[in-house]
Amino acid sequence: MKFLLILLLASSFAVTKAEEASPAQLKVMADKDLMPLLQHKAILEAISAQNKKKLSLKKIEAIDTKWIRTAGYDDFMRKLMANDCANILKKAMKKYNYILEAFIVDAQGAIVCMLDKTSDYWQVDEAKFTKAFNNGKGEVFIDKVRFDESAQAYTSQISLPIVKDKKVIGVGTFGVNVNLVK
Asked: Theoretical Cys-Cys bridge with 131: which of 11, 82, 123, 141, CB 3.0 to 4.6 Å?
């Protein structure tokens, strides 16, 4: 009986892994679905407005420290999940069943909007920002596939540069269920 159970679990794992989208399929999906989404007026306006504030490094670090120490959500975080930019992400999540998480950052790597709280406010030290922003040149970054315990799915984070007037103004990051990407 134990052997049958192990065999059944192993075969379901093999099927799950076999149905995973390839990096090439993820890139096609990113170009087709996500890049156009990131050109939405509400997203571009939100990033531009935050970039114009020119938050100091000291201010960003203070927000990041408070963010990390805050259990749950505070009013600042809730605003980032309820603004016009976040509403576009919510619509995208409904339209594309493979999106599990999404957030947008400005040119300094600070959160502009999000679907849910991220582990930190300032993304500047993470590959998803540095590789996608690419020193202002922009580049699609597809992270390694990992098993996400909370989602019970194989996921990858895809980060894309957000361009306005031929200039990279921010980055959009999407956590996607790679088994649902067609």
From this structure: 141
User: What is the distance between the alpha carbons of residues 135 and 125, in angstroms, rounded to a whole number?
Assistant: 13
Residue type at 140?
V
Q: Where are the alpha helices (DSSP H) in the chain?
A: 2-18, 23-29, 35-37, 41-53, 57-69, 75-80, 84-95, 127-133
Q: Please indicate, yes or no, if residue 163 is contained in any of the structural domains.
A: yes
* Predicted local distance difference test score (pLDDT) of residue 18: 43
Domain annotation covers residue 140: yes
Q: What is the tens place of the pLDDT at every residue in 86-130?
A: 999 999 999 999 999 999 999 999 999 999 999 999 999 999 999
Is 105:123 a contact under the CB 8 Å cutoff? yes
Q: Has residue 9 been placed in a domain?
A: no
* 148-165 confidence digits (pLDDT tens): 888 889 999 999 999 999
Q: Three-state SS for 166?
A: coil
Q: Is 15 contained in some domain? A: no
Rounded to whole angstroms, the Cα distance separating 40 from 101 reads 18
Residue 94: both structure tokens together: 């409904």
Domain extent for 104: 21-177
Query: Distances from the Cα of 119 to the Cαs of 45, 71, 77, 151, in angstroms?
Result: 25, 11, 12, 16
